[in-house]
Design goal:
The complex is a heterodimer. By secondary structure, chain A is mainly beta. Helices cover about 0% and strands about 50% of the residues of chain A. Chain A has no helices and 11 strands. In chain A, strands 2, 4, 5, 6, 9, 10 and 11 form a 7-stranded mixed sheet that branches. Chain A has a 4-stranded antiparallel sheet with strand order 1-3-8-7, with no helix packed on it. In chain A, strand 5 and strand 6 form a beta hairpin. Chain B is mainly β. Helix content of chain B is about 0%, strand content about 55%. Chain B is globular. Classes of the chains: A mainly beta, B mainly beta. At the A-B interface, strand 4, strand 5, strand 9 and strand 10 of A face strand 4 and strand 5 of B.
Amino acid sequence: NAGVTQTPKFRILKIGQSMTLQCTQDMNHNYMYWYRQDPGMGLKLIYYSVGAGITDKGEVPNGYNVSRSTTEDFPLRLELAAPSQTSVYFCASSYPSRQRQDTEAFFGQGTRLTVV
Amino acid sequence: KQEVTQIPAALSVPEGENLVLNCSFTDSAIYNLQWFRQDPGKGLTSLLLIQSSQREQTSGRLNASLDKSSGRSTLYIAASQPGDSATYLCAPDKLIFGTGTRLQVFP
């Protein structure tokens, strides 16, 4: 299994540009998450999804959009990039369930985004 | 709303010490709790997963306990080594994180 795959690994954007960070998981997890982590800081939840077609805001959703058309994919869209969005972005997936034993959460390796 | 607190925020110890890292959470209606490690500039690596029906889980020198009713989990690290230096994070099943414990083990 590949686990959680994020692309790209690195990206430089100019102010006002848009881009989509891709996240794919092959573990049939229902929950997927997007976080950002600023230097020396903790993880802040941007958006999460509890299943295909369902998304919800986390702590810091402004400036971002998500969609979840399939179980596997959870892309994060940045519209009108700003320097404040310079950060490392992590995608994760899990399957919180009393029935399933393989409920471990997995993280992608991150996307390092710089907005200049 | 789930909130997670980790104590201490930072810890600097000499090699060989046994360590205790604490995690508390406000909503005890969880299926599991997971401990992660993050090295500087890297992603998160899963260390241990404790199901809500379990009281503890062990992996090598690591032992994690869970007291769901009181909203607490503890990570014990035995005979610490410099390679254990990292930030340790706990997260209940909906992956809400606190700020973690930054551990430095010096030779």
